[in-house]
Amino acid sequence: MKQSNNETVKHGFTLLEMLVVIGIIAVLIGMGSVSYSTAQKKARDAKRRGDLKAIQNSLEQYYSICNYKYPSSVPAGGNNLTATTVNCPNLSTSVTILTMPKDPLGGNYSCVGTCDNSQYTVCSPVVSGTSRLETQNCTSGSECCLSNQQ
Q1: DSSP assignment, residue 54?
Q2: Structure pTM?
Q3: CA distances for 137 relative to 19, 31, 36, 140, 146, angstroms
């Protein structure tokens, strides 16, 4: 079949079609990266909350075993929650407690205020301005600091 000179055959995409497709792909990639970043921040905040709860559980165990006294100093930070043996004051008992973990961004959890044999308050480090969490404004309170339960 022979085509006449007035007919044109379309063999590819026009420049406009290509730009529209590239634009749509760019918008989808942008939305995906924002969503991924938010998911990472929420995961780091969840790890902070879990670490704080593990620290609190460890200190409360120590309290119940060691004659109702908290350790006078909290074990130093490490990369993970690791076990450390600590001697109870005025007792011949040694207790295994967890050390302070590192924050997901590398900071240190720390004792805030009075931390002695009768009380403690442990907080996650400041990560965003004055906030201790990345996904919500938390300068103190149960979300970013934990205190003795006794």
Answers
A1: H
A2: 0.71
A3: 41, 24, 20, 9, 16
